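Dear support,

I submitted the protein below through the web form. The confirmation email said the job was done, but the results page showed an empty box. After a refresh the structure appeared. I'm attaching both so you can tell me whether what I see now is the final result or a partial one.
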Amino acid sequence: MRLIAVISVLVLLLAACSNEQDYSPKPRGFYRIYYPEKAYRQYNEDCPYSFQYPVYANISADPQAKNKSCWINMNFKQFKGVLHLSYQPITSKKIFDELVEDAHTFAFKHTVKATSIDEGNISYPDRKVYGLYYTIDGNAASSVQFFLTDSTKHYLRGALYFSSEPRLDSIQPVLDFVKQDVDVMIKTFRWK
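What the results page shows now:
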């Protein structure tokens, strides 16, 4: 009987001393984001506008804009984001009013997912650059939209999109980083 008790205790001790570790759930992890150093270069192509944009972004013609010159995409490849820029000449007051209304409509289409949409005025009278900046909060597909105009000849609309599911808590750090670049683009924007 004593032998059985000693053997049982030894077996239990050996089982308790195995190399298996206790399981505990791992905390949820997120990708580490590497932000490039902020530096800018001039965009000055055959379009009626110029601006500064980040060196880590590439500019290409918008492939979906057939026969529309000066419709470009500013690609943030590292962040899987694109700032779509579409230019329209203003030929009449009616066209201008329609373009401004379209910008408003496109921004407010995101009200289904947005928690708020704020409008900010853009005004640089010395360069004749005016417009509206829409900050769209929440899980909307586009968090930044804007338009720039001189009110007589030129109109440019911009919309920022990321190629990922629109979850603000996930993209917020990258969005804040790219918004700074959009702000620099607007602050350095000039009509030719």
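Response: this is the final, complete result; the empty box was a page-load delay. The first strand starts at residue 40 and ends at 43.
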